[in-house]
């Protein structure tokens, strides 16, 4: 064998070896990615009212006393409309100095403004309209808004998650069968689409998660007929062997 022929033979052997190594790196089980969704509308059974009260005076002590008196009146009003003490959160206070448009009687041009922020849960929605009307009629009650929710939100979302997972598996089965394959076990599951997972994983803990639910202003403060709930799932499944239809067709062809 001359040198040129030997070089070609060695090149062919090397190419064959590289091809075998590349084939060995391929996954033994191909995969399929699919998603599932579930949603429902449910009548709310609880509300939250958000508002603030304030008192202003040239003396910080007088402003605090006025705010305490106003807070006591608000507590009595809420109790009158069936709100339990444990459903009232008015612990957040703010204090600042403000410039007066006209000097006070003592010639002062500055005053202290004390503000108390409220979050009140209303469990009896039938009493909500009268409570809102009473709050709107009170002086020094500002920035009133409302939000609505379900006390069994977690149970609703768990049920929807199960339905979304079943939908993802059903979609995966249809997709696999369309290509003549069976659907195997799930190897990865996420609540977000795969291309959205990286930003979520890189976000610092607690980012974008407020300590209290955000209020959604409702102009008429009326209870909505229903609230939307939805869940989605993205899953990656192994592809199994040929589907039953494919196996039957292959046997008929072999005959």
Automatic annotation (TrEMBL):
Any one GO BP annotation for this protein: DNA damage response
Signal peptide: 1-23
Keyword terms of this UniProt record: Signal
Protein origin, superkingdom: Bacteria
DNA-binding keyword on record: no
Listed InterPro entries: 26kDa_periplasmic_antigen, SIMPL/DUF541
The protein's name: DUF541 domain-containing protein
Phylogenetic placement of the source organism: Bacteria, Pseudomonadati, Pseudomonadota, Betaproteobacteria, Burkholderiales
């Amino acid at each position: 064998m001359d040198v040129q022929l030997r070089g070609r033979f060695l090149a062919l052997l090397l190419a064959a070896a590289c091809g075998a190594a590349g084939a060995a790196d391929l996954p033994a089980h191909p995969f399929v990615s699919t998603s599932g969704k579930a949603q429902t509308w449910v009548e709310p059974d609880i509300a939250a009212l958000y508002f603030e009260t304030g008192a202003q005076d040239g003396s910080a002590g007088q402003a605090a006393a006025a705010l305490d008196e106003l807070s006591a009146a608000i507590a009595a009003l809420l109790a009158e409309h069936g709100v339990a003490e444990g459903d009232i959160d008015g612990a957040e206070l703010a204090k600042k100095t403000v410039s007066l448009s006209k000097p006070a009687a003592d010639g002062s041009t500055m005053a202290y403004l004390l503000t108390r922020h409220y979050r009140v849960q209303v469990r009896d929605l039938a009493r909500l309209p009268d409570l809102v009307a009473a709050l709107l009629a009170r002086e020094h009650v500002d920035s009133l808004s409302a939000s609505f929710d379900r006390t069994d939100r977690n149970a609703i979302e768990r049920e929807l998650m199960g339905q979304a997972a079943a939908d993802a598996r059903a979609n995966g089965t249809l997709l696999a069968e369309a290509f003549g394959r069976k659907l195997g076990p799930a190897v990865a599951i996420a609540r977000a689409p795969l291309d959205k997972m990286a930003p979520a994983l890189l976000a610092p803990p607690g980012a974008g998660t407020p300590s209290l639910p955000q209020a959604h202003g409702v102009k008429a403060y009326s209870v909505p007929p229903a609230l939307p709930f939805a869940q989605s799932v993205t899953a990656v499944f192994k592809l199994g062997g040929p589907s039953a239809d494919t196996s039957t067709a292959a046997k008929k062809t072999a005959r």
